[in-house]
Amino acid sequence: MNSAVLLSVRGLRVVHRSTGLLARTEQTAVDGVGFDIARGETLALVGESGCGKTTTARAILRLIDADAGTVRYDGKDLLALRGEALRRHRRQMQIVFQDPFTSLNPRHSVGAIVAEGLIVHDIARGAEAEARVARLLEEVGLSVADASRYPHELSGGQRQRVAIARALAVDPEFLVLDEAVSALDVTTQAQVLALLARIRAARSLTCLFIAHNLAVVQQIATSVAVMYEGRIIEQAPAAALFAAPQHPYTRALLDAVPVSDPRDRHVRIPLAGDPVTGRARARGCAFFPRCPHPLKNADCTTAVPPLGEVAAHAFAACIKVHTNLETT
Amino acid sequence: MTALLSVDNLRVAYADRSGERRAVVDLSFSVEPGEIVALVGESGSGKTATALAIMGILSSNARVGPGSAVRFEGRDLLTLPERELRDLRGRRISMVFQEPAAALNPVMRVGDQVAEVALVHGERSTTRARDQAIAMLDRVGLPDAATRYRAYPHELSGGMRQRVMLAIALLLKPALVIADEPTSALDVTVQAQVLQLLLELQKESQTAVLLITHDLGVVAETCSRALVMKDGRLVEEASVDALFHAPCHDYTRELLAAMPRLVRPRVVA
Hints:
The structure holds 2 protein chains of 2 kinds.
Chain A: E1 5-19, E2 24-38, E3 42-46, H1 53-60, E4 68-73, E5 76-77, H2 83-89, E6 93-96, H3 110-120, H4 126-139, H5 156-168, E7 174-178, H6 186-203, E8 206-211, H7 214-220, E9 223-228, E10 231-237, H8 238-243, H9 248-256, E11 308-311, E12 314-316, H10 319-327
Parallel strand pairs in A: 3-8, 3-9, 6-7, 7-8
Antiparallel strand pairs in A: 1-2, 1-4, 4-5, 9-10, 10-12, 11-12
Helix pairs in contact in A: 3-4, 3-5, 4-5, 5-6
Chain B: E1 5-16, E2 19-31, E3 36-40, H1 47-55, E4 62-64, E5 69-72, E6 75-76, H2 82-88, E7 93-96, H3 100-103, H4 110-120, H5 126-139, H6 145-148, H7 158-170, E8 176-180, H8 188-205, E9 208-213, H9 216-222, E10 225-230, E11 233-239, H10 240-245, H11 250-258
Parallel strand pairs in B: 3-9, 3-10, 7-8, 8-9
Antiparallel strand pairs in B: 1-2, 1-4, 1-5, 5-6, 10-11
């Protein structure tokens, strides 16, 4: 394993269980997910609603339990951490959630929200904590005076800046951004993205960036993993993935993004159907029912296609892509 | 050509604890028959208040200012009695909302919700209304429409629910559809399906569409003309091509600069 790897996930599996009146249901939200993130890199986990990207992040952060797999952080087995060791570890990895309206406690002032981590982790108290909060607020583009305000007095963009300041307070080296700019208006989104890029560089952060907007991902990610139905179906350095997507789902996903110039309008054949989230998964490739690949056939339904190498550092889980590579 | 819809000096204000908040200020624009016009703006720009004012469905704490007029097919919707408005809604002018899960009646079969439009507007035969609804559900791409007619909204995916909304809105081939962020709650592959369907239906029924969106990509993809709103005011009106290539207003330029743009892969045939 590369020594620069900070986070290494292998075979991650998360099953959502619910016990209803009549039946217990089990739904595998994440299955066999694995990836490495090197120090200073930003891996984007992309996919549509219900593909398992948020569940993956939550399992890595130990916010929910994984059913199988390993998660190593700087060599340390995260899934084995308990009690005080887990609590201490949380300082290293922080998260910014999508919705700053629900992720900030409405009864706490901005100052109290940002200072909480400092106090919980015994980093600073009193005047020292106040001074740190002031510096953090300035770092995220807010002012010291904002410390005494409450979340409802702030705009969506300002709240998200508070959420970022809160995450940075404990000086983490790893940041999970779970659709952190998705709920923002486009001009605010651009500002917050620019802020995140600055902070990432200044603090040498390693990031897991969860998003559904591929244009946003292209701006910030160094590598990209595309998820479909709980599995990674393609993974590659960002430049390679956007220049030469291999998996038919990745291609369809990119093609579905609206053009950014009316002169680029083109006839497209939208991907048919919906992901079959939660329903009985077909055997073999989960994308098979919607797949537009010209060579798709019964072979695709015999086994789950493995994530195989298609180019240097680029992987795709499609047997037809691999067949094509072998014959050309 | 006479405009199908012409909005003149529209003012909308909401009463709240601290007094009055102006949502729309002196807004004037028109929509020609069969054209697709984008109403673009960020949260709080007044685009949804504009739509609700045109439809006459503003909430009770909203007030339309004196001097405002909304002319549609020669009549002023703002002064029309509720009974006549009801006759127009669903037949000549209809609306598609962002959240089909919230807009559809959760305890009514989706097919009945489509058939209801025909029944409310003069169809006497429930059988004919039902057949019309099935045909429309089939047209909007609901697989096995005759069976899905009996489904409840929660049994359908988000994309399918929005197809049902389009079926309801376009059943009687209205002259104007106001679509308020119709694809914003959908995933990108489903958004592409629904936008394409909207364009097909628009073409077939020669309906004009006022497409309300915050997404300039959706505008670039579908509209011929665009109106840009900021803080309740119209700041720019232009053809979509001019808007993207020669924006006049600073705010439009700011929006365009902030728009995340995907640099596309070279297409290999």
